[in-house]
Design a protein that fits this description.
Keywords: Oxidoreductase. It holds the Pfam family adh_short. Belongs to the short-chain dehydrogenases/reductases (SDR) family. The structure is a single chain. With about 240 residues, the chain is α/β, with parallel strands linked by helices. Helices cover about 45% and strands about 15% of the residues. The longest helix has 29 residues. A 7-stranded parallel β-sheet has the order 3-2-1-4-5-6-7, with helices on both faces. It has one domain: Rossmann fold (3-Layer(aba) Sandwich). The chain starts with 6 loop residues before the first strand and ends in an 8-residue tail after the last strand. It is built from 6 helices and 7 strands.
Length: about 240
């Protein structure tokens, strides 16, 4: 199935996994809107995608996913520009990692409000548009959504919740023609949590790998739905 002239909104699409997905979709001819909390960062990412000679158009938006009205405005802007919304990729996320003794209430709320409530706002803002196109709502969870670890109480809670939330709304919306899936990556070579990507990250999943996976998922015949996809590096570094 061709994706040309489809439309997509990717939250947090200015960097990391979101940027990899945006690039892959734009290369397929999808018109892509990417958001960041900083409009300048979104515009900079959009220019990088356009410079790659993609077939799809690229729109930069300033959106804090913790703001429901901002997400509704973004969907409206996409519909005004391109007439429809086919794909919503709820990718924006944040991580605060600390023992519970040290984790602050502010860090807890920022993590939950971004990684979980932000996705709730995303589906509420886009569900009518996606019903109209028989579209796809994709969430980016994590293997941390099934595997807990010390210092991960806020992040684990947000991703465990996101995985469950995604599966529940999949059941809510499947009979209305809206497909919902979640991708749960392991170690990905990104700047997440202020990590600086370097050659030592070559063993990790690369952002273009996730982009290719999303393209394949969106091209799959609508009669079939991989509702939860775990993905991890084939090998880990030798110790």
């Amino acid at each position: 199935m061709s994706l040309k002239n489809k439309t997509a909104f990717i939250t947090g699409g200015n960097t990391g996994i979101g940027f990899g997905i945006a690039m892959a979709l734009a290369k397929e001819g999808v018109n892509v809107a990417i958001s960041s909390r900083s409009l300048d960062r979104a515009k900079e990412a959009a220019k990088k995608i356009e410079a790659a000679g993609v077939d799809g158009q690229v729109m930069a938006l300033e959106v804090d996913v913790r703001d429901f009205e901002a997400q509704k405005a973004a969907v409206a802007a996409i519909q005004k520009e391109w007439g429809k919304l086919d794909f919503f990729v709820a990718n924006a996320g944040i991580g605060h990692f600390a023992p519970i003794q040290e984790l602050t209430p502010e860090q807890w709320h920022e993590t939950i409000d971004t990684n979980l409530t932000g996705v709730f706002y995303g589906i509420k803002a886009s569900v009518d548009a996606l019903k109209a196109t028989k579209g796809f709502f994709l969430t980016i969870s994590s293997l941390a959504g099934t595997n807990f670890f010390a210092g991960g109480s806020a992040y684990n809670a947000s991703k465990f919740g996101l995985t469950g939330f995604s599966q529940a709304i999949m059941l809510d919306l499947r009979q209305e023609g809206v497909r919902v899936s979640t991708i749960m990556p392991g170690s990905v070579a990104t700047g997440f949590n202020n990590h600086e990507v370097n050659e030592k990250d070559a063993w990790k999943i690369q952002i273009e790998d996730i982009g290719e996976m999303v393209v394949s998922l969106f091209k799959l015949d609508p009669r079939t739905l991989p509702s939860k996809i775990e993905v991890r590096p084939s090998q880990t570094p030798a110790k």
